[in-house]
């Protein structure tokens, strides 16, 4: 039985003044032990958040594929570990869009994170035009083919399906569309790494998840949690999503 994971992604939001939100979210997570929760924060908040988060895992949103080197402005896995991170997102669609990252980049970054003991949330998802053209399934399958790490295993890898057009827009796919894509991802994982490992990997949905729609989305087959952006920035908005996950677990 896969546990539900509710992970927040603060993106480029948050100063130390927001650390009380981290503390409040950590308390709520501890009060809902049937569900896993985590927060992926800006690099600058990882260390201070890890000091106040108790058992709530604190993660990053990206990393460089190399451990060190002449890469101005970049952060490596060993640096994240030293700051207290225990997980990281890779391949988020905003990195793919804004920084032109590819699925191969995500593959390399996932490998770097795993080398240093970080858990990984590997993102995939189609653009609106790709869905309109009937190419959503093929695009997502291709992203998984190119980015799934060599030794993918549920002990450290989670997949997040995030249709780009649903991120921060208030638009969500229908329940059937979400369940269908998650089933396609599960089938792809089974083909690539076998049923046992594939069936243990959590597949999260991301894109305009809120306290109002979380329970319905999280109850769908093969939806093992949520990757939440805007609604993860405050305990007031994020805790109801954790509680919704607990209610369907
Ligand atoms: O990583 C999180 C996703 O991009 C979802 O963002 P959102 O919940 O603001 O739509």
UniProtKB/TrEMBL annotation:
Subcellular location(s) per record: Cytoplasm
Catalyzed reaction equations: L-erythrulose 1-phosphate = D-erythrulose 4-phosphate; D-glyceraldehyde 3-phosphate = dihydroxyacetone phosphate
Binding site for substrate: 9-11, 168, 208, 229-230
Function as written in the Swiss-Prot or TrEMBL entry: Involved in the gluconeogenesis. Catalyzes stereospecifically the conversion of dihydroxyacetone phosphate (DHAP) to D-glyceraldehyde-3-phosphate (G3P).
EC number(s) stated in the UniProt entry for this protein: 5.3.1.1
Subunit structure: Homodimer.
InterPro entries xrefs: Aldolase_TIM (IPR013785), TIM_sf (IPR035990), TrioseP_Isoase_bac/euk (IPR022896), Triosephosphate_isomerase (IPR000652)
Origin: domain of life: Bacteria
CDD domains for this protein: TIM (cd00311)
Pathway participation: Carbohydrate degradation; glycolysis; D-glyceraldehyde 3-phosphate from glycerone phosphate: step 1/1; Carbohydrate biosynthesis; gluconeogenesis
GO biological process, alphabetically ordered: gluconeogenesis; glyceraldehyde-3-phosphate biosynthetic process; glycerol catabolic process; glycolytic process
Major subcellular site: cytoplasm
EC top class, as a word: isomerase
Family in the record: Belongs to the triosephosphate isomerase family.
PANTHER family registered for this protein in UniProt: TRIOSEPHOSPHATE ISOMERASE
Gene Ontology molecular function: any one: triose-phosphate isomerase activity
Alphabetically ordered keywords of this record: Cytoplasm, Gluconeogenesis, Glycolysis, Isomerase
Gene3D superfamilies assigned to the protein according to its UniProt record, in alphabetical order: Aldolase class I
Organism: Sphingomonas kyeonggiensis
Gene Ontology CC annotations of this record: cytosol
Protein name, per record: Triosephosphate isomerase
């Amino acid at each position: 039985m896969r546990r539900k994971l509710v992970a927040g992604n603060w993106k480029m939001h948050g100063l130390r003044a927001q650390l009380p939100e981290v503390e409040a979210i950590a308390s709520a997570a501890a009060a809902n032990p049937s569900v896993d929760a985590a927060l992926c924060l800006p690099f600058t908040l990882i260390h201070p958040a890890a000091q106040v988060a108790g058992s709530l895992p604190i993660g990053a949103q990206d990393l460089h594929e190399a451990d060190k080197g002449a890469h101005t402005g970049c952060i490596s896995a060993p640096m994240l570990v030293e700051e207290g991170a225990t997980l990281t997102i890779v391949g988020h669609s905003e990195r793919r869009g804004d920084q032109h990252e590819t699925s191969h980049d995500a593959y390399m970054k996932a490998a770097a994170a795993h080398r240093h003991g970080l858990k990984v949330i590997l993102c995939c998802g189609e653009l609106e035009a790709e869905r309109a053209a009937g190419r959503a399934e093929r695009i997502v399958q291709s992203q998984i083919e190119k980015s799934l790490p060599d030794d993918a295993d549920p002990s450290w890898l989670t997949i997040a399906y995030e249709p780009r057009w649903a991120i921060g827009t208030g638009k969500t796919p229908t329940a059937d569309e979400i369940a269908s894509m998650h089933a396609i991802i599960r089938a792809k994982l089974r083909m690539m790494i076998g049923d046992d490992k594939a069936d243990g990997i959590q597949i999260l949905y991301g894109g305009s998840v809120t306290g109002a729609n979380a329970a319905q989305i999280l109850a769908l087959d093969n939806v093992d949690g949520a990757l939440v952006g805007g609604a993860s920035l405050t305990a007031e908005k994020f805790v109801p999503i954790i509680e919704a996950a607990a209610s369907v677990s």
